Amino acid sequence: MTATLLKHEYLRTRTFLGLLLGGGLAIVALSTLFALMEWPVLSELGVALGVVVTLLLLPATQIALAVDYWRSSYRQLGYFTQSIPAKGSTIYWAKMLWAWLASIAAMVVTAAAALIFWTAFGPMLGLAGNPFTMAGELLDFASQYASSGMLTAIVVSFVLLMLVWPVQYFFCVSIGSEAPLNRFGIGGPIIVLIAFYFVTQLITTFAILILPFGLGLEGGNLAVVSFETNFFDAFAGNGNDDVMPLGFLPALALIAAACLWRTHYSWNRKVSLV
């Protein structure tokens, strides 16, 4: 059943996802061309547009999927979705899995866009215009300070961190679509999203205090090190400039697990359409 639901999600969203990712990649390619031409105004516009579009490809994809999740689950299309002969949580997990797959695809397209854009942007910074040459140099530089295992862990952690966003968006949409918040339409999910943001900030801040460890240089190599902090430094983001705190990662993992469980429960017990 999950495979069938995944196929349905693909067929239903492939058009707007293709336009979003394909159109974004085309805009970056055109921006790169403008930047390479060194035309007054157009070149500067191409650089600015290329940077913005490259950075927004992934978040724009995830936000578009969250809006589609709301419309297809809790608005007019929701009556069709909820009538599918499958458990609510099964439908939810299919949508969640598709959001993860689409997010990974958006990351790949973002990487491709960055490679294209670097051919124009790199020389502006006085660096090699060949993106693969630059990537090799960057990898060689990083390998002087970190082992291959550490670099792999950083990349995997980054990917997983990006996949947390759809979990949070879908949670906010589902809770905001439960009674009585569903009376506010799209306002319900927005209210939950704002409240969720502040709660998450508090939890991750306290997590950094409770788990004071992070990435820093130790003996000339990148390693997990401990550091001292206090509430005001953690809340304001001050202090320990030579260490990147990692205590927020376990907190985000627990928050994501709680969001998954609560949204699973919502689909089975709390679905309310208006």
UniProtKB/TrEMBL annotation:
| Origin: domain of life | Bacteria
- Segments spanning the bilayer are 16-39, 45-67, 97-121, 141-165, 186-211, 243-261
List UniProt keywords, sorted A-Z.
Membrane, Transmembrane, Transmembrane helix
Identification of the protein by name: Uncharacterized protein
Q: What is the lineage of its organism?
A: Bacteria, Bacillati, Actinomycetota, Actinomycetes, Micrococcales
